[in-house]
Amino acid sequence: MAQNQAVHAYENALIDRSHLYNGHEYIQHDYRVKVHPFFATDSLQSGSITYNGIAYHDVLMLYDVVRDELAIKMPETIFRIRPHSQQISTFSFGPYQFARIVGDSAAGVRTGFYQVLHGGRIQVLAKRIKTVHEDISGGFYKANYLVKDRYFIVKDGVYHEVKKKRSVLALFPGQTAPLKKYLRANQIKFNEQREQAITAIVQQYETLTH
Q: Any bridge partners for residue 56, and if so which?
């Protein structure tokens, strides 16, 4: 751990960070929406960004799911900057890893940041989505964010959106029975734990076919 921190400190000392902070100012969302628009937390997180092919560590950041963009804090200021999304290939903070995917209209995949839930020979990706829901029926303005995540399995370079257990298992013919057995043995209920179940199925398939 201490060695990793020393390596990061050395790398950061060598890298000119000026172009990383050369984006536009991050503008806050409507203050009337009480739920935050970010992924996982509304507190700045220390993480890493690969920007223009260069890895930067110990960057304070938030991932704005509503706008699908990063907000990073400029050092020694209170300002947050939006680095150019098209220049970001990956970013991570805590246990979460994201990659920028170029869209595939045929598969219904839009360009943007996707969380990498499993990065093996078969990938599992989550597209985090928050949309604004407004309500003025009571005579005053109320709003919150609705969460509707999408999940994709990338097999042999092809994106497959999966929603139900049937659509996941259909991608792994010949292993349906042992995969179902694995879910039962580990008490993973697809309808209640969809994200965990999709990831577990893919991981177990790779184990079975290694």
A: 49
